[in-house]
Amino acid sequence: MENFIDTKFKKLIEEINIKGIYDIYTNMVRTFSRLNILTQKSIEDFLTKFKYWGEISTINCNYEVFYNKASILKNNLDDYVWLYNNLQDYKSKYILYAILNNYYNFDFISLKNCMEGIYKHYFDLELLPNLKNEVFVDVGAYIGDTVKDMIDTYGNDCYNKIYCYEMCKENIEKAKINLENLKNIVYKENAVVDKEKIISYDIGKDLSATKVCVEGKKTVMGVSLDEDIKECITSIKIDIEGGEIDAINGMKNHIIKERPKLLLSVYHNNTDLFEIPELIKKLNKDYKLYLRYYGGPIFPTEIVLVCI
User: How many domains does the chain have?
Assistant: First the structure.
């Protein structure tokens, strides 16, 4: 029997399904143009600062970002339905509905309803009630903020060892200062990718937006977790500005054999929201999938896929 979330999601999918890409795109542009000018500017400034999803310039009538979203909504509707049917709780299902309806209708209300106000980023106690003796790998450790959140949530005895991977040396040094009172932390100044290779990268507008790119001005050694860590891993967090799938492909053996808990950012690329969970289920069909939302009410970011 359907509940209201099932009904709302089904109605949205049916509406998108009967429209062409251009109709979906023009609906997005039309709805965007009706927003408050300050809200439009806020969205444009954000999308211009973090150019993950496409370009936008209201002055030049360039709405590439909306066309990209429209194309993916239309061409990958079955993937979104698959994801909805594979999510394990209705909070996750509501989050997926809110994200898609924000793309399509700039639905700020549903997105605001999803915002996490209780738990630390990545560490939902309803999904992960107790971490103890973990071998935790933080891929994209930044300045140690995720590790601090884990310790604050579960206490100092929640881990046996923590690996912090971070490309940017400045971030590594700050993480060492922020985590200086903690033991058994291994700092790795590396990119995490599918296989060992030299990686080019650039630092974005701030040090949290360091990302792999072909024409990057800096270089670092890229490693795969399958080759770099030989012990059993119990949990992995990945937030690396769009390199998540590449990193997952380099840790397949750990995922298949050890089934670590996975905390994965799924918003940096337009297709991450369905491609990453599909990849995880392909590697190990026993994983249960959940979505949690740690972003704001205007444009969907900080979407986390929890795989248990």
Answer: 2
CATH of the domain at 190: 3.40.50.150
pTM above 0.70, yes or no: yes
Helices (H), the chain: 4-17, 21-33, 37-49, 64-75, 77-86, 90-105, 108-114, 145-154, 169-178, 225-228, 244-249, 252-258, 272-283
For 188, residues 6+ apart whose C-beta sits below 8 A from its C-beta are 163, 164, 165, 166, 223, 228
Phi-psi region of 59 (alpha: psi -120 to 50; beta: other; left: phi over 0): alpha
Q: Would you say residue 280 lies in a domain?
A: no
> Domain range for residue 150?
134-265
Please report, as a single letter, which amino acid is at residue 224. S
Instruction: Write the pLDDT tens digit of every residue in 225-255.
Output: 999 999 999 999 999 988 999 999 999 999 9
| Whole-number percent of the chain with pLDDT over 90 | 90
Asked if residue 190 lies in contact with residue 221, where contact means CB atoms within 8 angstroms, the answer is yes
pLDDT digits (tens, 9 = 90+) for 7-33: 999 999 999 999 999 999 999 999 999
Residue 144 located in a structural domain: yes
DSSP 209: G
Cα–Cα distance for residue pair 271/98, rounded to 1 Å: 16
Tokens 């490693």 locate to 223
My answer on whether 92 and 212 are in the same domain is no
- 């024409």: which residue's tokens? 215
